[in-house]
Amino acid sequence: MSPRRFRKLRVIVLMQEELMPPETLDGVEDKRSQPWRTEYDVLSTLRGMGHEAWPIGVGSELGAIRKAINDHKPHVAFNLLEEFDGYPLFDQHVVSYLELMKQKYTGCNPRGLTLARDKALTKKVMAYHRIHVPRFAVFPMSRNGRRPSRLRFPLFVKSLSDEGSAGIAQASVVRDDEKLKERVDFIHRQNQTPAIAEEYIEGREVYVGVVGNQRLQAYTPWELVMTNLSAGALNIATGKAKWDVNYQKKIGLITRPAELEPPVKKQFERISKRIYRFLGLSGYARMDYRMAEDGRIYFLEVNPNPQIAHNEDFADSAEHCGMKYDALLQKIMTLGMNYYPTR
Length: 343
Prior knowledge:
By secondary structure, the chain is an alpha+beta fold. It has helices at residues 37-48, 63-72, 91-100, 110-117, 119-128, 177-191, 239-243, 245-251, 262-278, 313-320, 325-337; strands at residues 10-16, 52-58, 76-79, 136-139, 155-159, 173-174, 195-199, 203-212, 216-218, 222-226, 253-257, 284-292, 297-304.
């Protein structure tokens, strides 16, 4: 079978400075445990497809991006940034800068990032549109916030804006006001962000990937399953479960196509597309849900520009729909090159 042919493009791959990957995997025992695996997979795959691709490390200065644009005249910037100057909410400003430079880029637009990064704001928009969300409260930094009486235990406490399960552990689920205060203080101290506490939904953890600008496609709903959790442990995507390969093996963590009846599968896909449009997203995103024991679907949050390492959830669900990894990256670039901010 002959390899697929793609029109050769000039691509700058924007990534955090500390996540610049090695040129080869020589001497690397397990790529899955490396923090730069997404960057390596995207860069090496683009080059394998015949594109000219340059890694551009970005820290606290925009000058590196301007220089890369001037030096390489890229057709598209493949945006893998999840923060700028160490602050996750600033990634939207980098994308705004790309638009001001009239540089085509992959992934979500600035307004979509603004709405999606604030988990409370996202939930408010969804509640307005009558999408089921858990009741919640926000606890700002440096304030002794009190739990509203309508908010019932158990509660799930996490950062208002951080992604990647940062600060999430089994202790994130609290059952009284004392533990709530302790966990909120922990998020303030550890993550340096406001905290959000939402009612914990016992049930299944389901993710749905969506791609597109105006015309959308939802990929196969994907489920997080832990087959060997210790007694009393909860089925939640902790930071350790997300990033520690040895711990994943210990708890029997797998992700797989969610076993759903066809009408329920269609419901997940339909809701995901609606949320994508309500938030004005573009490029690609992943929706996170809890499916309660009574079958009710609760929207938790959306992740624009989610992790797209090979053999991770988003890429696996796309491949389950017949979209191979190289074709997925090509589609993401094509969407970026066909997105027009002024429209």
